[in-house]
Structure formats: C-alpha cells, structure tokens
Design goal:
Strand 2, helix 1 and strand 3 form a beta-alpha-beta unit. The radius of gyration is 19 Å and the shape is globular. About 50% of the residues lie in helices and about 15% in strands. With about 260 residues, it is α/β, with parallel strands linked by helices. It contains 11 helices and 10 strands. A 6-stranded mixed beta sheet has the order 1-2-3-5-7-10, sandwiched between helices. A 4-stranded mixed beta sheet has the order 4-6-8-9. Bound molecules: ligand T3D.
Amino acid sequence: MAAASILYEARQGVARITLNRPDVLNSFNAAMSLSLQQILAEVTRDVSLRAVYLTGAGRAFCAGQDLGEAAAREDSGIVDFGARVRNLYNPLVLALRRMPKPVVCAVNGVAAGAGANLALACDLVIAAEEASFLQAFVKIGLVPDTGGSWVLPRLVGSAQAAALMLLGEKLPAAKAQELGLIYKVCPGAELETTAWDLAAQLATQPTYALSLIKQLLAASTQNSLEQQLELEAEYQGLAGRSEDYAEGVKAFLEKRKPSFIGK
Ligand code: T3D
C-alpha cells in the first residue's frame, strides 16, 4: 500500500502536518495537494486545535510541482496549468492565510517553487541552517505561483523580489533571514524542538486575538492608515469582549500566569 502523502496528528492543541513524499523531495502531485487541502479545512474547523505545525519528511521541505507527474501529463496531451494552479495551489495559500490560528512552518531542507511559496504563506517560518529557498519556476520556463509574486515584494522589497524571481537562484536560510523573508534560522538538529515548542506555546495563547492579529496584518497590505486605524478599533472591540481578555487582566492583577481558552 502506498504511504500517505501527508502525515497528520493532533497533540497539545497543535495540528502537526508533514509533507511525506521524501523520495521526490516532497514535491506536489495532485493527490498530495488535495489531501493537504482536506486536512487544512478540518484543522480550520476544529476549535480544539489552536496552532498548526507544518514540515517536510526527509531531507527536503518541498520541491514544488512533481516534475515526474508533469512529464507524464504532458505526454498524454495539453495540460491546463492555469486550472491546476487554481485547483491545487491557490486553495492551499488561502487556507493557510485564512487559518484562524497561527501556522508555524519548520523548513527542514530545500523549499523550491510552490514549496518555497507554501512555506512563505505560513505565519512564522523557521528554517534549518542547511535549508534554502528557491523560486525555481523560471528555471523550467514557468512564472512564480502559490502567492510568490504577491508575498515576495511585500517581504523583501521589489529589488530583491525581482532578483529572486528572475534569477531563480538558491537562497540559503541565513540569507533568507537577513533579507526578512523568514522569521529565523536555527541549527538543523534543533529545528524540530524550536519550531514545535513555538507552536505548542502559541496553542496556549489567546487564539481569538491571534486570529484577529492575522487579519490585521493581511488587511494592512491594502489599507490606508485611516482604514487600518478603524479596523484596529473594530477588532479591539471584538477582542475586548473575549473571555481571554477578561482572564488576561484578571491574571495580571492576581500576579499569576493567564490560562487562556482561545475564546
Ligand atoms: O501544474 C503544475 O503543478 C504547475 C505548478 C508549478 C509549481 C512549481 O512548483 S514549478 C517548480 C517545480 N520545481 C522545481 O523545478 C524544482 C526541481 N528540483 C530541483 O531543482 C532540485 O531537485 C532541488 C534544488 C529542489 C534539490 O536539489 P538536490 O541536488 O538537493 O536534489 P536532486 O538530486 O535534484 O533531487 C533528489 C531527488 O528528488 C531526485 O530523484 P532521484 O534521482 O534521487 O531518483 C530528483 O529527481 C527528485 N526531485 C527533486 N525535485 C523534484 C523531484 N522529483 C519530482 N519533482 C520535483 N520537483
């Protein structure tokens, strides 16, 4: 029986998701994308899960599209790449961005093409020192997808984004951190513990406020200052009515650690 292309378990309030096609550097075939879409939809709905941890099995994070599957498809006739991107990759980006809980991505090795941009759709990206990021699309005559052309200029500015997308060169993890592409780098042997501990800690935090913070960050890329100030006021109105706010203030006054329930 074929191994599952996505491994999934729930522990300590964290949904742990592993891309699991290590022989092909966890590259995406259609089945893996559809399976990941289904898991992300379930995790979105499950209020007992308050953080997500995403990583890859073996020595890579994800090498983007499975080029073996692509070659087989091309042999059998014309391929609608637009439809594939709409059906297989765009839903993943939107699910991660709209996930009402924080997503920590542990990039354990090379992240190429759609794999790089899948990582960049997560909220906090931690990479192993030996990991790298690669906008590989141009090397095979494609354009960036999976949100790359949207997120890269916003993270690193248009000059660096242009170089990354037009040259398709490998960017080592340390350089990715220096440019502001990712949150941080750590030794490979410490990646799992560092990223997992962060996800587990986030799962004890005021999840509702975290989800509103994610929405504020997303909206800030489009909004004027006036619009953003108004949105902050609106969301503060919502957060201020949450049970976690009441608990946070009570715990502060009682000089103890808060016990947040995520509502
Ligand atoms: O229809 C659609 O889906 C359109 C959407 C497209 C989105 C995209 O993501 S386009 C970009 C596709 N990805 C790439 O072009 C990356 C291709 N891979 C590489 O450039 C390199 O493999 C890496 C830089 C990622 C890693 O290099 P390295 O030297 O560490 O490993 P390697 O030796 O090249 O690869 C190891 C094995 O994985 C090898 O198989 P083998 O020889 O051991 O049997 C290799 O063929 C396989 N592999 C690596 N990447 C892919 C792959 N197999 C299938 N698809 C891959 N993307």
